[in-house]
Amino acid sequence: MAISSIGSTPGVGTADRNMESTGLDLQSLLKIILTQLTYQDPLKPVDNFEFVSQLAQFTSMEQSRQMTDKLDSLLSLQSSNQTVGLLGRNVDVTTDTSTVSGVVKSVSFQGTQPQLTIETADGQFLTNATLSQIAAVR
Q: Which InterPro entries does the entry link to (predicted)?
């Protein structure tokens, strides 16, 4: 007996979500449950409560993953806002060889990582400074 695919499930993204970290997506879980129902022993049927429990656990796990993704996005936005707030401020930046003081002149983003350009008191520009290099803000 052939089992056809379930198709798309409303409300579940497919293209942009990478579910490799959890191992299964909703589509795979539904296929497993359908296969279990199809091939179960009629003399020993599986309790429906078990299937509902599995779906509830998966839903809870998926909601936790979505909340984690949204919190990561929120933290990234907060970092961006804090970085933009450094414009025009005096900062001390630790480099490989010394600590440099100067004014933040511009902020750019390389991916999600902010890059600062700092003008020192003698007119030199320090480019591509990161937030982790900032020792003090005045």
A: FlgD
